Amino acid sequence: MNPIAHSPHAHAPSSIGKVMLTVMLALAPTTLFGFWLYGWPAIHLWAVAIIAAILGEAFVIRVRQRAVRPVIMDGSGILTAWLLALSLPPYAPWWIAVVGSMFAVVVGKQIFGGLGQNVFNPAMAARVMLLISFPLEMTTWGAPLPLTSPNGLNLLEGLRVTFLSQPIDGMASASLLGHVKTESTRGIGLDQALTGFFTPMDALWGMRAGSLGETAALLLLLGGLVLIARRIITWHAPLAMLLGVAVPALIFSLIDGNHYAGPLVHLLSGGVMLGAFFIITDPVTSPNTAKGQFFFGLGCGLLTWVIRTWGGYPEGVAFAVLLMNAATPLIDQYVKPRIYGRDRKGAALPAKKGA
Amino acid sequence: MTLFDRFFSGMRGGVHPEGRKDLSAARGIRALPLPQKLFVPLQQHIGAPAIPVVNVGERVLKGQLIAVAQGNVSAPVHAPTSGIIVALGDHVAPHPSGLPVPTFTLACDGLEEWAELQTCDDPFALEAEDISARVAAAGIVGLGGATFPSALKLKLSRGMQTLIINGGECEPYLTCDDRIMRERATAIVDGISLIAQAVAAKEVVVGIEDNKPEAIEAMRGAARASSMKVVAMPSMYPMGSEKQIIQVLTGQEIPAGGRPADIGVLVHNVATAFAVQQAIRYGRPLISRIVTVSGGAIKSPGNVEALVGTPVRELIDFAGGYSQPAARMVLGGPMMGQHITNTNVPVVKGSSGILALTPDEIGQDEASPCIRCAACVRACPVGLLPLDMAAHIRGSDLSGAVDLGLKDCIACGSCSYVCPAHIPLVHFFNYAKGDLAAQERSKLKQEATKKLAEARSERIARVERERAEMMAKRKAARAAKERAAKEAAAKAAEEAV
User: Fold this and answer.
1) Cis ω before A167 (30° cut-off from 0)
2) Class of A16-334 per CATH?
3) Shortest CB distance from A348 goes to which of B256, B377, B381?
4) Res B145: pLDDT
5) Which of A11, A284, B95, B110 has the fewest CB neighbours in a 10 Å radius?
6) Which residue on chain A is closest to B244 by alpha carbon?
7) Among A245, A268, A248, which Cα is nearest to A177's?
8) Quick check: B245 and B253 in contact, CB under 8 A?
């Protein structure tokens, strides 16, 4: 006889694997664009990150004496490595990706107990670890060398950049935020610093120096909208994060435009777009309720802007996300849905006899 | 889900399971041929089981009372057809456990000879009490699946503001209410008017999901002459749940732990309204119902009118049998229905559907870890946090789960349905509710035991005390006597001196 099954005897056609796959598909446009923009080194770095995550996770699962296959096949580790790779400088050496990926899946996720148990976003935890431990490698940016351009690197040259750390001649460049920070410490105002460095159209398309997959704002937005349409994420956290960055940027740039960058600069640079749609929407480390997610996103945005503006680092998304991850249990404790038939405090609604 | 549904359904959460109603909706209700034997359980309702009033070997007529209601919450049972009662004993229950329950076995004689029925030519002249008394006598229970005795609801709801008639039928596959509304709208509207009269309702609203346009049209046509409103509601599960239909149609919520009557609302199902009409007008007790026989493994799905007590197997045979082996048999709808493992179980008053489902339809999978995606939070129509409740229950922290609202859960299954990790959330909640009920029972028992023990020790102490007092009294009396004797002796001695 069959074991007795509990209702419901029907299920939505969904699974963890499908969720992860959809997110990866949504990431594909910006990733492919990054591959094209930065050429073979970016492809190598991405592949190394993903392989390292699979191996690292498989090792830990073995040690924990669990079945390896289902854990690898759910795709969460691969997605973590993918997101981390997108946030790395495209010409970074291979071991940055390996150390980062291993840290993300082992320390960031498995040590907490595996999928669903980690407090901090593994990709961002790894990025912060790398930034603090290897500041040089993590802040060496290169100008785009598109695959199709005449001076683009071929496969072999790409391998040399990634695995032998061969420098790319005359191609060192600064990211927008790094440039602004450096210039402002030299006492140079934004009107000069941004001249020739920030053109909104290029920033929208992503034709500039930056992380592997963070530059193409439009493609990231496209991916995010796909996720919202597929009901993998809701609009609350992304919109709140964009507001959290844009509103203070607007206010302060109106007060002193030469000292504070405007909302467009902030929104279209660094990891804001990737963060808003793909990082802070990580279900494991964000609040449960739509309202909670809104506050969470708002906090991420505000902290990002504060760190960028007054902090020591030019970019603040990763730090902001980790700080808000720590606040997630608190948000969940205080932001709960109202239960049917009860008021906000949980007391039963009054009866209205014969009303 | 369209944007419109989300913002204007008036219900929070909810899910859109695949309807699969087209399997059975197009075909009319067919009467099932009389089976050879019927198995009529004594308990087909919420409350105390009925008490048998006929003996084994006795011949009974169709509609004859064979078991009477017992206590306040109960319903009588009638013979579904004429024949001989051949046994009163255990038969497999229409319940996942398949445990035996006391059941009449009726050998049908094929004559369909009716007992004498109490008809009524002018039911609207009846007193409210009389209507509910006749509904009670007819053994009518809520046919939406809850099987609460209907007369009791009428009695408790006199002077209601709003009578809601539930034609939601939000469970996938089920079309029995759809068909009864299409085919018997006039009788249903008549029944609704009788219920409205019994509770003196000021307003009557019939709510039907908009995936049943024919039923809406039929009901609107039948209700044209009356003041009742027939409202098309968005199709969304669990629209047909009492709490949700009230929220959608009146904008009010039943207070936690309360009943609809607390906010002046009474809800009855459309099939119940039909049964009420049959009982009042023609005196016919509830001995049959419309059952949807459907699912991917059924050869020709449809709706049949089956006598209470008909084995499920007969209905499946009538629907052409299986087109492929069924992965799971379900009594009721797929969202809240019960898995049955034996097709000898009888159709009872609350059986709305019999489903033979294929593996694809069930979509069962191994549970994987929760990724806290909160799909369950968005789906919950009550506003609970299913993922957190399940985590507490998994850790045996029942009181933590109760604090999160376990007792407010309506077990609709929306959370389990959407969970991408295939975690059986509602199973956790029902398990916890069962455990909680057991704990409360054992607590009551403990308290009762403690009270008895205290009473006993008090009684023993009292007896001791009384005996001691008695002894002391006796001793004192004896001492007094002795003293008196001594004094008397001394006096005598004195006198002698």
Assistant:
1) no
2) mainly alpha
3) B256
4) 81
5) B110
6) A340
7) A268
8) no
Residue type, B392: H
Identify the burial level of B418 via C-beta atoms within 10 angstroms of its C-beta, where 0-12 means exposed, 13-18 middle and 19 or more buried: buried
Residue B286 tokens, joined:
């509830």
Residue A224 Cα, gap to closest chain B Cα (Å): 16
**B408 and chain A: CB distance < 8 Å anywhere?**
yes
Which residues, 6+ apart, have CB-to-CB distance to B113 below 8 Å? Answer: B61, B62, B82
Return contacts of B63-71, CB within 8 angstroms, 24+ apart: B63/B114, B63/B115, B63/B117, B63/B283, B63/B284, B63/B285, B63/B287, B64/B115, B65/B285, B66/B40, B66/B104, B67/B42, B67/B104, B69/B136, B69/B139, B69/B149, B71/B47
Range of the domain at B448: 373-497
Range 204-243 of B in CB contact (< 8 A) with A: 243
Q: Note whether A337 contacts B385, CB cutoff 8 Å.
A: yes
> What is the end-to-end Cα distance of chain B in Å, rounded?
123
pLDDT above 90: residue A166: no
A115 touches chain B (CB under 8 A): yes
Phi, psi of B379 (to 5 degrees): -80, -25
Pick B377's closest partner by Cβ from A2, A70, A288: A288
**8 Å CB contact between B337 and B355:** yes
Cβ within 8 Å, pair A115-B369: yes
CB contact under 8 A, B371 and A4: no
The count of structural domains within chain B is 1
Specify if B205 maps to a domain: no
Tens of pLDDT, residues B165-175: 999 999 999 99
Among A102-106, A318-322, B331-335, B489-493, the minimum mean pLDDT is found in B489-493
Helical ranges in B254-329 per DSSP H: 270-282, 312-318
Question: Which SS3 state, helix, strand or coil, does residue B307 take?
Answer: strand
On whether residue B348 sits in a domain, the answer given is no
From A286's Cα to the closest Cα of chain B, the distance in A is 8
Q: Report chain A's mean pLDDT, rounded to a whole number.
A: 90
Instruction: Note whether A15 contacts B96, CB cutoff 8 Å.
Output: no
d(CA A68, CA A56): 11
Tokens of A306: 């504060």
Residue B441 lies in a domain: yes
Query: Residue A22: CB partners within 8 Å, gap ≥ 6?
Result: A226, A227, A230, A232
Amino acid identity, position B72 = N
Q: Give the per-residue pLDDT at B295.
A: 95
Return the pLDDT at A145. 83
Q: What is the mean pLDDT of residues B71-95?
A: 93
**B269: three-class secondary structure by DSSP:** strand
Q: What average pLDDT is seen over chain B?
A: 92
Looking up tokens 């001995």, which residue turns up?
B287
Q: Does residue A81 contact residue A52 with C-beta atoms inside 8 Å?
A: yes
Tokens 């927008």 belong to A176
Angle between helices A76-86 and A122-133 (to 10 degrees): 40
What span, in angstroms and rounded, lies between the C-alpha atoms of A122 and A80? 7
Whether residue A353 has pLDDT greater than 70: no
**Residue of B162, B171, B262, B365 for testing the chain A interface, max A β-carbons within 10 Å:** B262
Other CB atoms within 10 Å distance of the CB of residue A187:
6
In a domain, B10, yes or no: no
| Burial annotation B443-476 (CB, 10 A radius, 16+ → b, else e) | eeeeeeeeeeeeeeeeeeeeeeeeeeeeeeeeee
- Structure tokens belonging to residue B211: 């995936």
Query: What pLDDT score does A2 carry?
Result: 54
Q: Are the C-beta atoms of A84 and A129 separated by less than 8 Å?
A: no
pLDDT band for A170, please (50, 70, 90 cuts): low
